[in-house]
Amino acid sequence: MDVITLIIIAIAIALDPLPLVAFILLLTAKRGVRKGAAFLFGWFLSLAVIVAGTIALSGVQPPAHGSAPAWVSIALKLAAGLVLLYIGLRKRKAMAGPPKPKKPPKWQSGIDDMSWWFAMALAPITQPWGLIAAGVAAVIGLGAASAGTVALLVVFVVLASSSYLVLEMGAAFRPEKAERVATGIRDWIEAHTDQAIVLGSIAIGLFLVVSGAYQALT
Hints:
Elements: H1 2-15, H2 17-27, H3 32-58, H4 68-96, H5 116-126, H6 129-142, H7 147-160, H8 162-173, H9 175-217
Helix pairs in contact: 1-6, 1-7, 1-9, 2-3, 2-5, 2-8, 2-9, 3-5, 3-6, 3-8, 4-6, 4-9, 8-9
């Protein structure tokens, strides 16, 4: 169950609209490839530190059934699921009312002159921490008992970064086409962000709550 959870969470992180739009804005700004690379470095570093720290704290063996780490894993999964459900339902309720004007973040106004240090720091700031908390729960449930598990965690980090890697490589080798594609993706996301947040948050939240409750009961 934790393996399936980890893969689903990785895909959700890769497709999360808010950090993806931030990355595309960086990529289409002046010196976008450098800024995109800096963002990616911060993104990878943040995920790697979280995964490595979780493994170090949870031990090298999968937690025994009924042990404290096992219950921590279940509690984190349930908490992350409930938070995502709350976000999705709150956003759905907000969509039912009159639309409110959205103000762009202040950092966007200076994006062309942004340093690569700021671009790197922007990655952990915009990462979907609710999903990452659920990933931490799955990592605790897995432990690091074998080379296969370590390989799975590497796949998790790469899969969670896959959309960013594809866009960065496109910008580096096919800049004109990549800019058109990235701009199209950004326009689509900006037109459907609320719907994506509602659908993704509720679907993944339900999955985490159900799987966490199943693990707690069994």
